[in-house]
Sequence to fold (359 residues):
Amino acid sequence: MTPLEAEIRKIIAVDGPMPVAQFMALALGHPAHGYYTTRDPLGADFITAPEISQMFGELIGLWAAAVWQQMEKPRRVLLVELGPGRGTLMADTLRAAKIMKDFRAALAVHLVETSPALQRRQEQALKDCGVPVFWHRDLAQVPQCDPLIVVANEFFDALPVHQAVRAKSGWHERMVGVGDDGKLTLALAPDPIPGFSAGLPPKLRDAPVGAVYEWRSDAFGHELAAGLVRQSGAALIVDYGHEGGIGETLQGVAQQTFASALERPGEVDLSAHVDFSALARAAEKAGARAHGPVPQAELLRRLGIEARAARLKAAAPARAGEIDAALARLTEGGPRGMGELFKALALADPKLGALPGFG
Fold:
């Protein structure tokens, strides 16, 4: 039994079964035993696009620079990354930004990170970047005085997700409790969620018995969008997900292999697909405009990844095979490709108009 499982069992013993979202929040973010607060999981458990190739972060940097131009080149701009991993994406972004000296001179980098282990990696990666860098534990700590450009790669999939299951009596929230065998198990709250069907998209209200529906709180998306409107900014969100629907996507991963979401809490990464339609609706309620989503492959091609790959191969012919493999991983579909499963959604102050890669 992991230390976190012992803590979770104590909570259940006092309060009864907890919602899946509460379990996920504890498993990932518990201050002493959470998965992200105690380790650097990149490489060991999963790999993200910035770790596959420098091309990904470089193109994000060019996207940010183009957005800054649309903002009419403010003298100060906050470049914010949510969940910056090892700092690889930001390092690549800043390197690409060197071609626009005025843009780099305007930048202050703000990283929203809850993991002490990952913050140490970010500090090492960015120690010589030549741009002021600040760290915050949540978005609310980012200054509210200058225009914003926000990047979030594989951030929203780790936000806690609620689950409800359709029964004959209505939709019941799925909970985590202790089963008769003494193991953590999934169960349903005894009472249906009042008025739950009325809040679903019309096409989902007649879902069959046994159907599972997942949702996240709108709070973070609303907070992000409100900041973009208040500070005349834009955000680029890249993650894996869908545009609304029935189905269970919560999964556990350990050592790059699927694992039970309930076993070894605190030692297994948990994530669930992002509902881009719900995220866009939350942003629009806050006054922002949503662009997309578009497949990751489409965005990267529009931003010039194939031309960038050709230049890298010309500069380093010995790495041509490696570069081609990375390009395929980022842009192709199928079980190993990220190009179709991963999607890009941009949120922005409506005054900015069409955004690069989404026109």
Observations:
- The chain has a mean pLDDT of 93.
- The radius of gyration is 21 Å.
- The first helix runs from residue 3 to 15.
- The longest strand covers residues 170-178.
